[in-house]
Design goal:
Layout: E1 3-4, H1 15-23, H2 35-48, E2 52-56, H3 59-70, E3 76-80, H4 84-87, H5 92-97, E4 100-104, H6 113-119, E5 130-136, H7 149-161, E6 166-170, H8 173-180, H9 184-188, E7 193-197, E8 208-212, H10 214-226, H11 235-247, H12 252-267, E9 272-273, E10 283-288, H13 295-304, E11 307-308, E12 310-311, E13 316-320, H14 327-341
Parallel strand pairs: 1-11, 3-4, 3-5, 5-6, 6-7
Antiparallel strand pairs: 2-8, 7-8, 9-10, 10-13, 12-13
Helix pairs in contact: 1-11, 2-11, 3-10, 6-7, 12-14
Bound molecules: pyridoxal-5'-phosphate.
Length: about 350
Amino acid sequence: MAADFRSDTVTRPSAAMRAAILEAEVGDDVLDGDPTVRLLEEEAAAWLGKDRALFVPSGTMANQVALGAWTSPGDEIICQRWAHVTTFEGGAAGFLHGVQSMTLGGRDGRMSPEEVEESMRPDFIHCPRTALVCLEQTHNVAGGVVIPMAEVEAISAVARGRGVPVHLDGARLANAVVASGIPAPDWTAHADSVSLCLSKGLGAPVGSVVAGDGDFIERAMRVRKRLGGWMRQAGLLAAAARVALAQNVGRLALDHALAREVAERLGKIEGLSSDPARVDTNIVMVTVEREGLTAAAVADGLGQHGVQVMAMGPQVLRFVTHLDLGADDVQRLETAAVAVMG
Ligand SMILES: Cc1ncc(COP(=O)(O)O)c(C=O)c1O
């Protein structure tokens, strides 16, 4: 089998997850409620420090449910320039909810509280209403970086000071929790809604949650229904997701250590550059610096040596570590990269 560094979404469910699926008690979640979904929602809400959570099929739907719950057509959201919600969700904010995005900052995933403040629309009939500020933790395109707490606090304070709610795209919040040692509720205290993916580093086959207070969840349930995301005997999926949340948070530290190892080893190969000091979590960005050689060509070459990776830009490769990768795979990657870079 290839060593697959493309994403932390490629993991296969563990034996414990498969056993939990077989044993799961289920019901029609739409008609009477599914008991296993209910348990997952309660456990996820408690982990996130929010009143309630809803189970949805994907991280994209979790974010879009939140956008639908907070906005009306014609509104504007403020988010980071490379945020998943505006970059990789197929234009859903505009298509589904009729909102436009004001995007701030650069490739480092950051936006300053001052920029956010400056971008808030005045209450003026010519302007859209600023309806939501979105944060992303960890930031994917920036390379899995943990946005510092001081910045999260300051941006949230600016938004809330203007009566604007904050949504936290916490697809990989568990990675930020482990890397920073700051518990999830301390991060989510600065957000009015939060999404969390169980199917990324935590290893569940399918599913995310979106969490918030009771009023938010009442609105979110309607949006989830509208998007077709309210599933029937979804306890089968929730059962695996419960195992993911119960068993796989602490071990993310292993993925982070492995990612630093990837950065160290690849950074030493002539023509590639990566900085282990910039690896906060499980994502490593590697720049191809040899003239005439593209990231796509290097990815192809690695593929021929049984190592899969994604090009994230003309010169940038993204390596992601996860449950199904270990030291042997990093060795295989290094050997392959040495061969490809010749
Ligand atoms: C930061 C972030 N948010 C949301 C998502 C969407 O998750 P999904 O692929 O489950 O729709 C991703 C997926 O990679 C992501 O990286």
